[in-house]
Write a structure and sequence with these properties.
Largest sheet: none
Helix content: 40-55%
Distance between the termini: 59 Å
Number of helices: 7
Order of helices and strands: HHHHHHH
Strand content: under 5%
């Protein structure tokens, strides 16, 4: 199951959902129908039916939370250290500009904590802790307008595909002679 923001459930949310399943287990013992339980607990009927099958096989113990899917690679204390590292500029870590990218953060995590993450893993880690993608509000100080203008005038026309000529053409792509 996927959750918003790419992360799993927190411990509090996991306990809340386990409590709902335990309330459903009490009602299973009373023989209440799944539709009534689903409506009163404000959950889906299919979820209640799935919980009932588990309850029939293993009792209330089968409805307990199994815990998080996996332990986080970085503990909260380590993430706090990572935040202090990110508060320093990328220049302090050896990069030439002031841009934090996922690959750079991945490198910092590898250097500082000796742990390897994928780029998607870094993205999910940051989102889980409240970070979001940022786009600069203004242009970079280092931007050279003369170079940009020269590139647009000289390089871009060579890269851009030539447009179709406007003029009489063929109605058939396979036989240009037929008009």
């Amino acid at each position: 199951m996927r959750y918003a923001q790419g992360g799993g459930l927190s411990d509090e949310r996991r306990q809340l959902r386990e409590g709902i399943r335990m309330m459903a287990a009490e009602r299973f013992a009373l023989g209440e129908p799944s539709a009534v339980i689903a409506k009163e607990l404000r959950v889906g009927v299919r979820s209640v039916q799935r919980w009932r099958r588990s309850w029939n096989k293993g009792g209330p113990r089968a409805l307990r939370s199994a815990g998080s899917a996996s332990l986080p690679r970085l503990s909260e204390a380590q993430f706090a250290v990572l935040e202090t590292e990110l508060a320093k500029s990328p220049v302090a870590h050896g990069w030439p500009d002031q841009r934090w990218t996922l690959s750079r953060i991945k490198t910092v995590i590898g250097r500082r904590f000796d742990k390897s993450y994928t780029l998607q893993g870094v993205r999910k880690l940051l989102i889980r802790h409240g970070y979001s993608c940022q786009v600069p509000a203004r242009r970079a100080v280092e931007r050279d307008e003369d170079q940009v203008t020269g590139w647009v005038k000289e390089t871009w026309p060579q890269v851009e595909r030539p447009r179709r000529r406007s003029g009489p053409g063929s109605s058939s792509r396979t036989s240009p002679a037929s008009r």
